Amino acid sequence: MDPDSDPREGGPEPVDERTTLLEYLRAYRLTLQMKCADLDPEQLATRSVPPSTMSLLGLVRHLADVERHWFQRVMSGEEVPRRYQKEDGGPGGTWSGAVADPSVVDEAWNAWRAEIAIADRFLARADDLAMLGRTPAGETVPLRSVLVHMIEEYARHCGHADLLRERIDGRVGQ
Questions:
Q1: Is 0.70 surpassed by the pTM of this model?
Q2: Residues 18-54: pLDDT tens digits?
Q3: Of 10, 129, 135, 166, which has the most beta carbons under 10 Å away?
Q4: What is d(CA 117, CA 121) in angstroms, rounded to the nearest whole number?
């Protein structure tokens, strides 16, 4: 991609902690989307290497669950079920359910975008990075730590996405 047309560039200048964290999260979300761009359902569901069941589609499903968990369950205290994972934290259908079916692909993207929209609405209302959420285990966690964790989660999985995409069609990241 031409660096001048990279949608990750040109966001808010990271002049403070909040802007920095939100900008990094925005950029990594876009990176995942870019890694999946222009692929058909079969390509999105292509597994990495045995015995792994990881795929780009599985990553989209996983990150939808991660967004839901941290922003709705932990920070907002809502009792919403996981979308794909088992309640015990096991992977369940996150990876195995990522099959080359256009309706599965559409549902995954819709879920991921919906979870990001919910998270972004929460973040727009949250004026204090020290505000506390509560994990299912009862531990408190500040919003600041959740944002750092989300950046780490996306960064890790965007690395996976780089390798998956290169395996599919040779496209590599910048």
A1: yes
A2: 999 999 999 999 999 999 999 999 999 999 887 888 9
A3: 129
A4: 6
